């Protein structure tokens, strides 16, 4: 995310970033909240068949966060596609 904010600072364009990135302070960059706030569809991708225990743990954390969120049953909920872990 710092790269995209640096591109904005270099006058290469604009960017939509998560609110948490507003902690990255770069001269010339102004952050403005978008209204109304809304959910954004996100995708989690990884190499199929990757045996990494860290990857498996991260995927489970994401699934747990999704299950506890208010958008867990919405049309924008993350869907499992492709090969299972």
Please count the helical segments.
Answer: 2
Give me the strand/helix succession. Answer: HH
Helix percentage: 25-40%
Q: Would you tell me the structural class of the helices and strands?
A: mainly alpha
Number of strands: 0
Give the averaged pLDDT, no decimals: 78
Question: What is the 3D shape?
Answer: extended
Rounded to the nearest angstrom, the radius of gyration is 17 Å
Structural domain tally:
2
| Beta-strand share of residues | under 5%
Distance between the termini: 28 Å
Low-confidence runs (pLDDT<50, min 5 residues)?
none
Question: Can you describe what's shown?
Answer:
By secondary structure, the chain is an all-alpha fold. 28% of the residues lie in helices and 0% in strands. The chain folds into two domains: 1-38, no CATH class; 42-85, no CATH class. It has two helices and no strands.
